[in-house]
Amino acid sequence: MPLLTGAVLAAFVGYAGAWYFGLVEGNFALLLFLATLVTGLYWLAERFWFLPRRREAAARLEAEAASRRAQLQAQGISQVDGGDVSQARQRILMQPWWLDWTAGLFPVILVVFVLRSFLFEPFKIPSGSMVPTLLVGDLILVNKFTYGIRLPVINTKITEGTPPQRGDVMVFRYPPKPSLDYIKRVVGLPGDEVAYLNKRLFINGKPVSKDPVPDFFDEESMAYFKQFSEVLGEHRHRILNDDNRPAFIPGVENFPNKDNCRYTVEGVTCKVPPGQYFMMGDNRDNSLDSRYWGFVPDRNIVGKAFFIWMNFSSLKRIGSFE
Is the peptide bond before 132 cis (omega within 30 degrees of 0)? Predict the structure, then answer.
């Protein structure tokens, strides 16, 4: 068992290392599920096999020591060297290293697995596509049950929950590459006609409220960008526009239901298919979103982003957001 356990642990470490250095395409949900499964099997083996055997061995040791003391006392010998077997008993009952690193970790891994899979999952914002709502380096929490609980790894929905609402900030599996998680704002619901023309958003033919507010200073590019207050559904949030970017959408990919979209020099107009969503970043001219790669199917939904729990560059960032 020590050799087998060493091989299993080495496989986990090797996979994590290869993922870290970009040699393989990692899947943390699958890795966590396998870790929970493997450590759970070791925990069951420890509880119902290894620990009872160690207890039996410790009981035999104590019985043998008691028998030896009784025999010696019968011969008139009252003091016996090595009569205290407490240390030997502790060594026998002690969990070996290969169970410490498997069965011993199972409760912690199980709690992390349940929390991450069914309640809340942490994410780190890697790009500026959601500026000014979310900044690079923001550590956020995603609610995994608002839109319905889904089985980990296969992402199959097992409860209905509340459908996504227009204006929600949502994490989803990137349709062209589902192993990647993206975060954008829900702009179009199933059946909506979404138009983004001359940098103005229209939903079902009606312009979305867009009021100018003071310019936003981007510390990374050391530049100011035009900032607006926009209302989508019940959410009021801020968006950015870059006057140096054109209104038309360059580099559009082929995607399912692309014939639902019309592209012109003014921008794009799309009819959202049933069971799918149209997503856009708040940094409108610096966001790779549904304008470029299409719609997000319901099966790709991960959860609703709702809270910044840390930003090591600015503790003032901690809190909820719209």
Answer: yes
Q: State which amino acid sits at residue 269.
A: T
- 8 A C-beta contact, residue 187 and residue 279: yes
Considering the domain 125-320 in this protein, what is its CATH number?
2.10.109.10
Give yes or no for a contact between 143 and 79, defined as CB atoms under 8 angstroms apart.
Answer: no
Active-site entry in 144, 184, 199, 304: 184
Q: Give CATH 2.10.109.10 domain extents, the chain.
A: 125-320
Of the candidates 129, 199, 287, 290, the residue annotated as catalytic is 129
Does residue 184 carry a catalytic annotation? Answer: yes
Residues forming beta bridges with residue 282, ordered by sequence position: none
Residue 210 is among the residues annotated as catalytic for this protein: no
pLDDT digit of tens for each residue in the chain (322 aa)?
888 888 888 888 888 888 877 777 778 888 899 999 999 999 999 999 999 998 998 888 888 877 877 787 777 776 655 556 788 888 888 889 999 999 999 999 999 999 999 999 999 999 999 999 999 999 999 999 999 999 988 888 999 899 999 999 999 999 999 989 999 999 999 999 999 999 999 999 999 999 999 999 988 778 899 999 999 988 999 999 998 899 999 999 999 999 999 999 999 999 999 999 999 999 999 999 999 999 999 999 999 999 999 999 889 999 999 8
